[in-house]
Inverse folding.
């Protein structure tokens, strides 16, 4: 069935049990969205979008090396609904038996039975939004679960047979101490996940968290403390045998996220669902953000594209550098030039020289990379390549 075309596939599920006060992702509480009836309509719309895209010249017969079910919280939906859409993907695309199939899940929305059903449907990687093993921190984050429930979710995943588990953790939370963060890392390590992702809390405009910080009800994240927490992550996780292979990601040998690896390599991908992005053939487009409007458009047989743009060579290059420099190995200049049709030094020679002279970038043996000790401030480096 494969035509030689290859694309990663991302499916967005914009529902959660409750909205976390720091979150600006495209998701809404299931109840407010219209409950499971609305989610069912959304899933049917997703199936229509899948069929429409699979029938286009860009994607017909494409092989799919990685599939990612993200959100939101995909696991607020019944497992057989998720199995249904995975089965449809297998009918429309060449999803090989080796494909990495990840589902994002939050503690409080999964048990052993549900995870077993997802594994039976083909899922082979579960990414759990644990965020912390401190109940006080979880309350501050407005999460739906406590630390014991997070541990129970890990145990349920293992009991169901999940052999590839990621734990997402957040640091830099108002009133969180370095000691608390180290304890969270240690409890995560005790559970022996194959992969750990650590994210600095970002205060996003318009969120309840931002309002609390603006009015002084909560302190703003402390950059120095966050830097210490970032350093502690590297120290503990690398000390336990994980490789720090990307700015925010750690993996046991051979357990790096294949889906994200493709993303950081600026490989093409098809995103389906409300607010999902796509990148194919030098074109980028994104879907309508509202799940309700998205659903109605597809029920009327229309692709729900909100915005599309053709990327210039310079844009493509800038994005390839911004993504690739997140990885420990950085980028190979020749590979980037072949991919983008323009060499990094043709478009960004001044920036590269300046960053190298500031010690923020290393150029060696045809590669460019950000030195590890500068990873915490890597946004400064990556921002230089905004096209
Ligand atoms: S569970 Fe995740 S996606 Fe849902 S509201 Fe919380 S942070 Fe946002």
């Amino acid at each position: 069935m494969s035509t030689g075309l290859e694309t990663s596939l991302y499916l967005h599920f914009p529902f959660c049990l409750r909205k976390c006060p720091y979150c600006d992702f495209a998701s809404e509480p299931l109840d407010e969205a219209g409950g499971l009836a609305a989610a069912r309509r959304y899933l049917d719309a997703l199936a229509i979008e899948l069929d429409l895209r699979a029938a286009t010249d860009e994607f017909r017969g494409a092989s799919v090396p990685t599939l990612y079910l993200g959100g939101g919280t995909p696991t607020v939906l019944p497992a057989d609904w998720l199995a249904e859409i995975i089965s449809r993907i297998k009918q429309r695309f060449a999803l090989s038996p080796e494909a990495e199939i990840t589902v994002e899940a939050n503690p409080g929305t999964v048990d052993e039975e549900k995870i077993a059903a997802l594994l039976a449907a083909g899922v082979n990687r579960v990414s759990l939004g644990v965020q912390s093993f401190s109940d006080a921190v979880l309350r501050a984050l407005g999460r739906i679960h406590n630390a014991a429930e997070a541990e129970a979710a890990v145990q349920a995943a293992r009991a169901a047979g999940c052999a590839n588990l990621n734990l997402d953790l957040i640091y830099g939370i108002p009133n969180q101490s370095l000691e608390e963060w180290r304890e969270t890392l240690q409890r995560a390590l005790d559970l022996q996940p194959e992969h750990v992702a650590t994210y600095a809390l970002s205060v996003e405009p318009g969120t309840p968290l931002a309002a609390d910080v603006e009015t002084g009800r909560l302190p703003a994240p402390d950059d120095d403390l966050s830097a210490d927490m970032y350093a502690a992550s590297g120290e503990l996780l690398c000390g336990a045998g994980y490789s720090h292979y990307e700015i925010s990601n750690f993996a046991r040998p051979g357990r790096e996220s294949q889906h994200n690896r493709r993303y950081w390599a600026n490989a093409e991908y098809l995103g389906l669902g409300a607010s999902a992005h796509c990148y194919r053939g030098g074109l980028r487009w994104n879907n309508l953000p509202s799940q309700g409007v998205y659903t109605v458009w597809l029920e009327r047989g229309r692709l729900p594209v909100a915005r599309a743009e053709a990327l210039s060579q310079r844009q493509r290059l800038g994005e390839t550098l911004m993504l690739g420099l997140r990885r420990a190995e950085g980028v190979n200049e020749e590979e980037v030039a072949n991919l983008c049709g323009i060499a990094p030094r043709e478009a960004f020679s001044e920036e590269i020289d300046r960053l190298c002279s500031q010690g923020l970038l290393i150029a060696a043996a045809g590669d460019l990379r950000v030195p590890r000790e500068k990873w915490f401030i890597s946004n400064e480096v990556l921002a230089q390549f905004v096209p």
Q: What stands out?
A: The first strand starts at residue 8 and ends at 13. The chain has a mean pLDDT of 96. The longest helix spans residues 35-54. The radius of gyration is 21 Å.
